[in-house]
Amino acid sequence: MFDDFDDNEKQLLEMCAQIATWQFMESDPVEKERLGNELDKHLKAAADARAERVAGMGKENTEKEASTEKAAQAEKNAEQPEVEEKATATAELESDRDQVQPEPEPERVRDYVLEIPDYIKNSAAYQQVLEDQRTVQYERISEQSDPYERAAKALEAEPLEQGQEIEGELLEVAQVNGKNYYVIEQDGQRFAVPAGDEPEFEKGDEIAVSRTKEGFEAAESYGYGL
After folding, report:
1. pLDDT in tens, 138-173
2. 3-state SS, residue 158
3. CA 13 to chain centre
């Protein structure tokens, strides 16, 4: 079931399942709260790791194209006078150096040492609860690592579930990671849906949106639904 997770993601998944099992079986409310906070931290780390890997897979073709273009440009530069070639190379190096931004140091959840109490670990129900939590946490990590789910969260809105329909005022057309999203309000609740490369609607429009197996469908709202 977990074949779509790499080794790092599986390790984080197992840690989440163990923490969730302990939290489920723990009776002390203070300890339950602490474990809940720890679980949230590990879930975020696992979802971030998975999202980064999936996004990286999608960038492979783009990087290959960029590499080909760079090689062609280098060959062209080689045909120019040596002084111009050196100036071009220097400019490229400076440009690359300017574009490099230091990555924030990730929170090292992998260094977390989980010491499950014996009265929990030796319980007859422990292994069954752990097995159930592996499935639960797998689903949570998969959901949180989905680009659309993450974009909706970034916009402080809810994603649309398959088969769901909404109708309301378009609050804004926003961008997350270079992609456009409509943020729509219905009955006081915010929803985010993909708006495509060229959004058709504008802030203040009344629109209706549905999500099917084929994707998202948006239309002008006339007050009687889709």
Report:
1. 999 988 888 888 899 899 999 999 899 999 999 999
2. strand
3. 16
3-state secondary structure 42-102: HHHHHHHHHHHHHHHHHCHHHHHHHHHHHHHHHHHHHCCCHHHHHHHHHHHHHHHHHHCCC
The residues with which 170 forms a beta bridge, in sequence order, are: 184
17 assigned to some structural domain: yes
Q: How many CB atoms lie within 10 A of CB 100?
A: 7
Residue 105 within any structural domain of the chain: yes
Residue with tokens 């530069």: 77
Question: Using CA atoms, how far apart are residues 168 and 203, in angstroms rounded to an integer?
Answer: 11
Q: Which two tokens stand for residue 22?
A: 């302990």
Last residue of one domain, picked from the residues 105, 124, 145: 145
- Angle CA 138–191–44, to nearest 5: 30
Answer yes or no: is pLDDT of 100 > 50. Answer: no
Q: What is the pTM of this model?
A: 0.57
